[in-house]
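Continued from yesterday's entry.
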Amino acid sequence: MKEQNTLEKVIGAPAQALDQTIETTQKVKEEIVDKGPVKKAREYWELLGPGLTTGASDDDPSGIATYSQAGAKYGFSFLWTAVLTFPMMALVQEMCARIGMVTGRGLAGNIRVFFPRYVLYFCTALLFGANVLNIGANLGAMAKGVQLILPTLPFAYLVVFFALSSILSQIYVSYQNYAKYLKWLALVLLSYVFSTLLADGINWREVSASLLDIKISFDKDQILMLCAILGTTISPYLFFWQTSQEVEEAIEQGGSSIQKRRQSIDAQAIKNMRIDVWSGMFLSNLVMFFIIVACAATLNKAGIPLELFVRWQVIGRIFYLQLE
């Protein structure tokens, strides 16, 4: 009998150890994951959505080109714009988000309802023209980015590939999955931050001083650069994007009609939206800040001012830390 009990204990020992491990893991999960900083971080991540992806979209290739040129040509002189434009950008995007949430319509839909038809046509024509040029620049920049790694691939084929991929993704991928992919892809922008922090020879005291040292020279080139920075930071397409995404989020949560979408808005929803929008705009301007710092500390110091149509090979080398 004793031998049988001993044999049962020996055979059952692995199972008991596994049970104890599972129980201990569950307790650790309850203490660490479901409570404290990890739980707060997870709740914060779940709050993020349209604001985060809108902020990330502001750092598109054409925007990165503008920030790179500002740093390469003028050093840290325009670094203060990263701080100044943050509240401006966040407030405008919050207004657009509120419009979408409260009315249940996108920005174009509200213009159609509350303004004459010619105003809608005029705004749509301007937006269409600006978006065509912007998307064209972005497709070309993405193609050039691929050629940094695979230089033998034809530029035109890469442009067509990225264009078709974007169109087909928007048509055949559900909004829920598409929004989730965009949300995670927004974290790719942090590579600019880490690349800059890993670079050698950056005088962070000079960087800090430049944030408060506002210098504006009223010559043509600097005025154009300032306009370019403001234009690519507070962009009209972001207004439409933000409003439309708030509506899409409401539809995804069951707001199939304007009436339902409007009824689902409460004080907590507005608070969550504000956290989302300000977080997204902070990420956008944080990336802008580090891009200017990286180009100022490398290209500007080396005397390589980038022109409006920047050389993507040089930019790629900066952020891959291959600049000699």
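--- second protein ---
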Amino acid sequence: MPRRKRNAEPQTIHHVIQRGNNRNYIYENTRDKREFLSILTTALTTYDTVLLQYVLMDNHYHLLVRVGDQPLSDFVRLLNRNYSLYYNQRYNRIGTIYGDRYKSYLLTEKEKFFSTVRYIVRNPVKAGLSPTPAHYLWSGHASVLDKASPIINRTELLAYFSPDEDLALKRYVECTEGEGWTAQVGFSTIIDRRMETEERLRCLFDRLLSERSLMGYQKMILSGATTKLSRELRNTFILLAIADAHALKDIAAFLHISHETVRRIGKQV
């Protein structure tokens, strides 16, 4: 299957995820993480990209970025290439350190933005690496709280929560640290796992149609239309969703088709 074009729309916000090859570590120690952040800073400046949040885990990273006028793919390519060169030289190895192309999710709604910020910040807590988001050293969360980050655009990040900085910070803390965050006026409650799965599928679905300039076909495909184009788009989406590690039952529910249909199409891989 040919590679899909990345969304190149300027001034858009993306959640970027990159994992290590076979889920191996891409950071062995503190020095590696510091070097990655240094390379990340250079890539941000080179491609006029704004970093809104990040977390470095041992075998993957998450970035929340707003691109400038140049494609997201150029920014990520520079970041991954330069860090791979550093890592291979440091550990006397060759070959890729990453498992596959990076994953990216275009965020077009505030609800998705808030849930993504929460997801990124709470990743170390979910993995059992830190008791709270603020205790984890390798994310941008603590620096947002104490205004210490030279790499995150704190002002732009908080502006999504409120134009008033004090209220914005209060809402940000509620969003990221609250166990059962309740929506404020104009905000949506952080979504549960089922809704998060549906959001990820919707984002993947919209990206597929957007890249082919076929956004008008959303309802037709989800209504079970059997035209040649609808079947081709549906089947392509199923393969993409399976590659993105979605459960067959979730894909079937999203498309309103049977689990067996998804399983049969998935066997083509």
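Residues 193-266 form one domain. Strands lie at 13-19, 50-56, 60-66, 103-107. Will compare against the first tomorrow.
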